[in-house]
Design a protein that fits this description.
With 103 residues, this protein is an alpha+beta fold. It has 4 helices and 3 strands, in the order αααβββα. The protein folds into 2 domains: 42 residues; 43 residues, no CATH class.
């Protein structure tokens, strides 16, 4: 019996779920009854079609209104993801987040 096919978005979500699960790809596939070679092929497709970083600066959006907190927020948009942090955030932590978004 043939299984229902996943969309590109569903494969992307599956791949992200595997990355955050703490399991390697083979373990994740076994646990969730996913054919490992299919998973690997779709992961390769996702990576190949992903937007490649240009090395240019990212667009930082300034909030329109002043937040209620005493520390203003900083919005960073990187590869289509918006990260809102206080300006008191450690630069090392923010760099790790951006590195994770890049992988």
């Amino acid at each position: 019996m043939r299984r229902e096919q996943r969309t590109k978005d569903e494969w992307g979500a599956t791949w992200l779920a595997q990355q955050t699960s703490g399991l390697n790809a083979r373990e994740y596939c076994e646990k969730h009854n996913i054919h490992f070679k299919t998973f690997s092929a779709r992961k390769s497709d996702i990576r190949r079609n992903a937007v490649k970083p240009t090395g240019k600066l990212v667009n930082v959006l300034k909030p329109n209104s002043t937040p209620v907190s005493a520390i203003p927020l900083l919005s960073v948009v990187y590869q289509g993801v918006t990260v809102n942090v206080s300006q008191a955030v450690e630069a090392k932590w923010l760099a790790e987040v951006m590195k994770a978004l890049d992988s």
